[in-house]
Amino acid sequence: MTAPALTRPRLLGGPPGTPFAGVDLASHHGRHGPLPAAAGLVEAVRAAGLTGRGGAAFPTWRKLATVAEAAARTGRDPVVVANAAEGEPASRKDRTLLRHAPHLVLDGLRLAASAVGARRAYLYLPPGYADGMRAALAQRQGSGWDRLPVELVGAPPRFVAGEESAVLARVEGRPAVPADRLRPVAESGLRGAPSLVQNVETLAHLALVARHGSDWFRAAGTAEEPGTFLATVSGAVARPGVYEAGCGVPLAELLSMAGGPAAPVQAVLVGGYHGVWLPGSRLDTPVSRAGLAPFDGAPGAGVVVVLPDGACGLRAAAGIVSYLAEASTGQCGPCRNGLPVIAQEFAALATATRGSDRADSGSADRPVDPARIDWLARLVTGRGACRHPDGTARLVGSALRAFDGEVRRHAAGACTEGSAA
Ligand SMILES: Cc1cc2nc3c(=O)[nH]c(=O)nc-3n(C[C@H](O)[C@H](O)[C@H](O)COP(=O)(O)O)c2cc1C
Ligand code: SF4
Fold first, then answer.
1. Alpha carbon of 339 to ligand 2 centroid (Å)
2. What dotted CATH number matches 228-308?
3. Cβ distance 190 to 173 under 8 Å?
4. Which is the closest atom of ligand 1 to the Cα of 63?
5. How far apart are CA 303 and CA 306, in angstroms?
6. What class has domain 21-218?
7. What's the chain's average pLDDT?
8. Does 236 have pLDDT greater than 50?
9. Residue ID of nearest Cα to ligand 1 atom 6
10. Which residues line ligand 2 (CB under 6 A)?
């Protein structure tokens, strides 16, 4: 089921480039109205069908309920963490949200804290955004209107630093490295306290559900995947940027919002570096979990990258695979032993054409074999402390499928980009 693009954005007001300092509390209240109390919020979020916008699309009400229940059962004070790490290199939506709607994020943080009974909150964000958010917090607390103590914690610019156990490690003052957890962080997270880790876009949606209700939220998106999402559209489009659309928007419509393709589309990466490649012939695909399921994909954090005709998809994918291999924290076997080999073999596949493959592959007596890369990718899946190997394997498998023509061209001694390596 597809949903039309949204005519009026909900989260992002004003034209791109609106200065951060212009988003003051009075204009925020003028646009969105006063903030209601959190009573009945969990039920409203459940009825709205809001899911996390940080990548995994977990039902938000369930996390709220689990944290509140764990706090009541254990007697421990819960905490709430707003996750704006945005470690994904092709994503700009969380940064854009902090710039354009800082008070919407802080409204969501305050409401979520209230709903689970937390008296402390943290905002985990790229250091360059701390001054602006500190100013927004000062406006709220200076007027006595919002008394929730919010501590800002700097997120290192690394892909895995936004994974929730890495987030909590950093908030505890340790390196932002994911951990193998026996219990969900909602039950036992920050120093053992029930912890709600929520993406900042999710919190902004939550602040609007509290104001306008679940029916309003469901007026955009599909019945199964309601609401809007922020997409970062880049690559070969006329106006790269962050756009808000209803969940289930056809890919072609999303590209139109970004000014349309700047060249004939060969393929589109949907869902970011842990996402999947779709062939350019499938721009009718709805950007939703249901729409992307046949490709083994999901919208993730809303990243869309357009690859034009004339580019070598294998080379584009190889750059990402090698980035992901280096982004691991090297703690677990699949990342330490598997990803570097996959990246090396993928790079060899991307650069090698017949006659040059042996020299470039790093394995002097064996030509590059895509089936072996696919096998290695399957081998690392499900075996890490976090989902980084799984996401990397998904990207690798989808690239091999989407660019199978390029694999054959390379095997025949040619490359779309025309230059034998
Ligand atoms: C490798 C990895 C990186 C992640 N990076 C981010 C991130 O930068 N920002 C984010 O909000 N969630 C990120 N997540 C997802 C978080 O673990 C967590 O699910 C999310 O913050 C929960 O918020 P949500 O339910 O509102 O989406 C990442 C997950 C993985 C496995
Ligand atoms: S799976 Fe990889 S990225 Fe995740 S904790 Fe283990 S080594 Fe680090």
1. 10
2. 3.10.20.600
3. no
4. 25
5. 10
6. alpha beta
7. 92
8. yes
9. 162
10. 160, 178, 328-332, 335, 384-386, 388-389
